Amino acid sequence: MYLPPPILAKVREAIADLDDGFDWGRLGRQHDAIPLFLNIGSMVFLRSDGTFLVYEGYPLPERLIRQTSEVDSLALAWGTERYPWLSALFPSRPVDARKCTACGGTGRLDNSSHGGSCDYCLSCAALGWVSAG
């Protein structure tokens, strides 16, 4: 993924601010990347070269299972909660795209019956739209 210069500068600032006292901070600094998604057993990072890294393992995610330059919009959605400026990296909606029926075009699923939380929609990868093809 191409990172425009203003976004790249913010990614580099965020990397410099990572705390080495945490696994995600240490891995982020080691791989020149910011953490986008963290949970028990997996982590997703965005490198300053636009590559997404996915780690798996428990208790310490150290095993790289995927490295791709393809846009990982679910990881970006999680990342925008911490780094709102990442929203500029979401793909543009194609003219012929359809509104996602699973989430009603919001990119999120309402799970208010589960404590009021919302989850990102897997059907559209948090975009709110799906390609017509």
List the helices and strands and how they pair.
Elements lengths: L4 H12 L6 H8 L2 E7 L2 E6 L4 E5 L6 E6 L4 H10 L15 E2 L8 E4 L5 E4 L8 E2 L3
Antiparallel strand pairs: 1-2, 2-3, 3-4, 5-8, 6-7
Give an overview of the whole structure.
The protein is of the alpha+beta class and 133 residues long. 23% of the residues lie in helices and 27% in strands. It has a four-stranded antiparallel sheet.
Number of helices: 3
Rg (C-alpha, Å):
16 Å
Strand content: 25-35%
Mean of residue pLDDT values: 87
- Report the span from N to C terminus: 22 Å
Order of helices and strands: HHEEEEHEEEE
Outline the low-pLDDT stretches. none
Shape descriptor: globular
SS-based class? alpha+beta
User: Can you count the beta strands?
Assistant: 8
